[in-house]
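Illustration 12: Pectinesterase.
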Amino acid sequence: MKKLSKFPLFRIYVSIFLSFITIWNSNSQALKIQHDLVVAKDGSGDFRYIQDAVDAIRVYLPKRITVRIKKGIYKEKIVIPSTLSNITFVGEEGTVISYDDFSGKGKMETFDSYTLKVMGNDITLENLVIENTAGRVGQAVALHIEGDRCVMRKCKFLGNQDTIFASGENSRQHFINCYIEGTVDFIFGSSTALFENCTIHSKVNGYVSAASTPNWVNYGYVFKNCKLTADAGVDKVFLGRPWRSFAKTAFINCELGKHIVATGWDNWSNVANETTTFYAEYKNSGEGANLNARAKWSHQLSDEEAAAFTTEKIFAGSLKPSLNTFWSQPSFIGITGKIDSSYSNNSAYLNTKKSHPITEIVPEKSLSSVNEQKAISYGKIGERALLLDVFSPKKVAKKALPAIIIIHGGGWRTGNRTQHHQLARRLADLGYVCFTPEYRLSTEALYPAAVYDLKTALRWMKANAQTYNIDTNRIATLGFSAGGQLSAFMGVTAQNPYFEGNNANLNHSSKVQAVVDIDGTLSFVHAESGEGDDRKNTSAATYWFGYSKADNLKLWEEASPLTHVGKNTPPMLFLNSSVDRMHAGREDFRKVLDQNNIYSEVHSFPDSPHSFCLFNPWFEPTIKYIDEFLKKVLK
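Figure caption equivalent — predicted structure in token form:
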């Protein structure tokens, strides 16, 4: 700076230049394009590449523009971000957008495999061929669309498994006069989508649709006046199966080829889905439309019911009246999007000390024998990263180590992943690799989002087993309170695809070899529970489910580990306080384990508070019981 002081004019020029750059950056959006464009591979248009044109467009356009794409094969992986709207992309005869990514290609997952990804609203695609040419290698998406009020007109979508991901919980998409081909679940996702006058072509035996409709959405996927065709030799195709248990799909006035199976619909190997899905048909024709052997749990719409499937009503986006009523109840806090920090080790200590004066804080301190890695992302929900911490022995092991996923409590509404750091350190010192993940609480997302997140974390652990030197055949879930319920639930639902959540690392199983449940309920509906017995919506479970027990008993039953316990349940350790309701259903649960010759243990702490495992004098024996149990069952 002293040298520059000798050159005052130079300093002035630098200042002017920096000011110009600042002005340029602040006005960069004003300089972006907001008029019609042409993309041409031969250089005769404004751009040679589609993505370059997309990147040049002004965000949040005040009026609609058209991007005309001249014929040619554009081998591009294209993203239309959520900041772009009011754009029509129109192709010519022979305009093809092509790419060949697929799940399993490197670290790629299903939702990374798209050829075209549409996140913006009010986007129209017209006269385009969009293809994924990866072949029959598993999930390979051609169109990934989550935008709202989007229209696809006279387009062809070519692929195999998972050709179109039509999703977005509040998104509405209209496919008109389109051709869609694929193999398995080739139209899947959570959006409200209307397919009109489309040809739906199956290339092998499989499933046309796999909707994941949220339970508050009225319609889901609707196919009207469509024609379902198939390759020669294809003779066993289902109209749909539920990717999530509230899937809604209807075929109205469609021509169904003989390749459609007599039962029509599949429950995805889960009988419980038959009571929650809504699969419907109305006045379909063709050899595949014979209703004599249709699944009894599917629906045949009456004339009056079918009259409600108008374009206006399908896209109205209204909530069910019963759900509107519930959300309007003033005593229900619902999803706030804010972090509830009311429950912590310190708040639990202050509360517990009143009733149990012997309670002592367990000092939080690192151990010289344990490595700590913090804030590692194991997945994403939109732009929201899901984090976990890892605690592992510093001593290099000659063989892979057993692992524990430790799940915090807090009534599914509060608490955080640091709650059991000291427990993780101590267990790591004993030779376990411990993972403490966060998960979405009920202030952010209702059940079963927490289950999806934790299973995603578990599969992520297995996918990164080599990095952390863990044995994927020796993994335990461990949780306290709400975390105990989630730990048990993960153990009993490992074979159930409904509870897997998103497609991250789905090539890895969510099966575990042991479960530790520390004062977590086994049943929300058991006589011993007392959870949600009033209708004032004050219970933690009511906040988590979004329904009181009286309003949706089946949902409360579904979330109870006792509902799912069976021959595939791993060995279980139950550590319990003297608060009886916190182990509701335990003995009935153990009876099923005994019937299937599955090992279990129970250790109860007399005259102990619910949060006993966090504090001394109960912390040390808790570690002892956990270590002894895991050494028995994780051989």
